[in-house]
Hints:
Chain A is of the alpha+beta class.
Amino acid sequence: MDYKSYIESGLLEAYVAGILPEPQMEEVRVLAEKYPEVRVELDKIEEAMMQLAMTSEITPPEGAEAKILDHITKRRPSSGGSTRTTSASSGGSGSGDIWKWVVALLAVGLIGLGVYLYSYRTHCEQMTSSLDEIRAEQQQFATEYAGIQSQLDSVQRAIAVMSDRDFTKVVMAGTDNAPESHATIFWNASTSQLYLIVGSLKALAADQQYQLWAIVDGNPIDAGVFDLDGDYLTAMKEISGNAATFAVTIEPLGGSEGPSLETMQVAGNL
Amino acid sequence: MNSKPTDHIKDIITGVKNRDADAMSRLYSLYGGAIYGIVYRIIQREDIAKEALQDCFVRIWQKIDLYEESKGRPFTWMAHLARNIALDKLKSSEISKGRKTDSIDVVVHPPEGNQLTETINTDVIGLNKVSNLLREEERMVIDYLYFRGFTQRELADETGIPLGTVKTRLRMAIKNLRKALSVDQ
């Protein structure tokens, strides 16, 4: 696995801050155990966040510590309690006393059962609420993840196209209609593949669309319509032959058979 | 106290695992303030924050066997517990609504100075250096995500900052923090 990009992803920081949904938290723990490099990085983040928490500590209200210690030491006498009962019952010889002990034991048992049931119920309530929360978070995360993944795929495809020598890059500069606009195409003459990256184009009315054209042997060939909210790298129609120029015009929704030249926004020669 | 608490924290954890209440007391004096800082900043009400702090340490005592040293530092584990408990308290008490929406404006455009800077600076001198090194927007991200219990999505929604930017800022903020605290040396 590519642990370097994992380290760079920001997931480890989010893990230490405790803000990832539980499945992702577990994923980080597993990876940290598997990859020492991840463990080392995580440790440094943990150190930083611990120091941050330590240096921004707030003095707790009085009595909190006593309550905690009280609570945890109270749990222990349960073993001490039972030894006392055994020694007392063996020591008590009067036969009438036995019933007292039986009643006392039953009472202790009932109280114990009550406490157990109560804590069990609280536990169940807590489990249900945190489970709901985890589910909601997980769903949200899945949606986010899918979005980021598709952006990432698009950028990765763009990089692959840009670094492919068989693709010719044509920068289309803004025409007089739109001097600030620009866009770039990557065209592979042997496979006819054509991709577009929009640099800057103005937003269009709802009933309009941009259309890309290739001028092949003097004739404009439709290379497809596109919108501004698409992927970073857009695959356009395949163009074969001796393309000399690429240009973008504004056309009615769905595109036109021939370009409306007066609306040309960007153009560039091979 | 700032001199590597990691050395004796191992002993303390072993003590707690062995049901030593005294070790628990030492754990509290070491991290009680930091944990209280975490829950208080999320809940922002002293009575409930105190309850959360108590619950957290009782939970630590009960669940200490779930903590494994190989999976990270005890403090991180405790901080996660604290955060979850604080968020649960917030949810079950009536104060949750409004807290988040109210506070954004207060902190993004605080009436007087940045809140996080204030809380940090008043506590320890060492962190002046740190908060100065962080850019305003990085401080805000740390404040909201780490100290106020926001998820990254919530912060993005509230502020209109893209989610990806929130994530990058968190990473940059912690990177700068590490630099400032000399963690990377």
